[in-house]
Amino acid sequence: MSDSPLLIADHDAIRVITVHRPDKLNALNAATLDALDAAFAAAAADDAIRVVVLTGAGPKAFVAGADIAEMSALTPVQGRDFSLRGQRMMRRVERMPKPVLAMLNGFALGGGLELAMCCHLRIAADTAKVGQPEVSLGLIPGFGGTQRLLRLAGRAAVLELCLTGTPIDAARALQLGIVNRVVAAAELEAETMKLAAQLANAAPLALRGILDCVNVGGECGIEEGLEYETAQFGLVFSTQDMREGTRAFLERRKPEFSGS
Ligand code: COA
Fold first, then answer.
1. How far is residue 170's CA from residue 178's CA, in Å, rounded to a whole number?
2. Per-residue pLDDT tens for 78-123?
3. Ligand 1 pocket check: which of 19, 21, 68, 132 to mutate, most ligand atoms within 8 Å of Cβ?
4. CA 155, CA 146: separation in Å to the nearest integer?
5. How far, in Å, CA of 185 to CA of 124, rounded?
6. Which of 43, 110, 190, 235 is most buried, with most CB under 10 Å away?
7. Could you tell me the distance, in angstroms and rounded to a whole number, from the CA of residue 24 to the centre of ligand 1?
8. 231-257 pLDDT per residue, tens
9. Which 8-state DSSP code applies to residue 207?
10. DSSP assignment of 163-198, as one string?
11. Main-chain dihedrals φ then ψ at residue 77, nearest 5 degrees
12. Is 219 one of the annotated active-site residues of the chain?
């Protein structure tokens, strides 16, 4: 049996990546960060894959955080490197050229919430709990939590979650805009795969254009963002999928997107 901390399975054009350390509630140690980095690089490069779903093994946790046992012995320089390692991997996920869905099947705490936030959409079981509990360990978030939670849910939410360290339930996470959808735990997998299939049938280059516009435009001023969107809008006119999508509409049929 492989000792990889990940399970990877393809369902047609959907790749499901599962963090697999259930006895440690899927905590992110250095080996898991590196395995995720390699898995997302491979998924980005594989044209047969159009959507990635990320989840955690077992009934209890998506990811319960960075590995506290591993972190407890780090020197300041090693701590900085550990943060960079996590941030590099999560930036790769955020900049993926295809949609990444986080399927939150339980605790998404600390590095687990940070990992969920670098995904493009988050679907949570009604039993899930999310939070940034680092302060309870005398730590602060180090994989982008203070920055992504600020951008995702605003100052009030980031300060509440990070300063108190208290996890919140899925319903409150939905209210704050931290997750996109909450579904009954028993329906989580089916609902996530349904959404993934919808995205897998969409025009890949249009999806990529949207992801690029939000990622790049979201980090610059409105003028530059609009200019970037205009450039991307022009670019999609070079795709066969755009011709197919508009023609199919006019011919009153379903489009078939090839990704070209
Ligand atoms: N790092 C390393 N190990 C972790 C972990 C983490 N972030 N979270 C859980 N584990 C381990 C526990 O040490 C335990 O291992 P053991 O059986 O070898 O002792 C195992 O996972 C099960 O966790 P346990 O605490 O017994 O489960 P629980 O149901 O009682 O509590 C949590 C669940 C999520 C509330 C609790 O595990 C927790 O608070 N985890 C840490 C969350 C956190 O602070 N994350 C941010 C880290 S910066």
1. 9
2. 999 999 999 999 999 999 999 999 999 999 999 999 999 999 999 9
3. 68
4. 9
5. 8
6. 110
7. 6
8. 999 999 999 999 999 999 999 999 999
9. H
10. HH---EEHHHHHHTTSSSEEE-GGGHHHHHHHHHHH
11. -65, -40
12. no
**19, 20, 23, 24: residue to mutate for ligand 1 pocket, most atoms within 8 A of CB:** 24
> Exposed, middle or buried: residue 126 (CB in 10 Å: 0-12, 13-18, 19+)?
middle
Ligand 1 atom with least separation from CA of 24: 21
CA-CA distance, 188 to 37, in Å (whole number)?
Answer: 25
**Residues in the ligand 1 pocket, defined by CB under 6 Å:** 24-25, 27, 64-69, 107, 109-110, 133-134, 137, 139
Nearest atom, ligand 1, residue 67 CA: 1
Q: Which of 70, 94, 134, 223 is catalytic?
A: 134
* Prediction pTM value: 0.97
Q: In which band, very low, low, confident or very high, does the pLDDT at 2 lie, cut at 50, 70 and 90?
A: low
Decide if 224 is catalytic. Answer: no
CA 133 to ligand 1: nearest atom: 44
pLDDT category of residue 1 using cuts at 50, 70 and 90 = very low
Separation of alpha carbons 56 and 104, rounded Å = 8
Closest CA to 93 of 61, 123, 57, 117: 117
Q: What is the 3-state secondary structure (H, E, C) of 30-60?
A: HHHHHHHHHHHHHHHHCCCCCEEEEEECCCC
- Residue 9 CA to residue 193 CA, distance in Å, equals 13
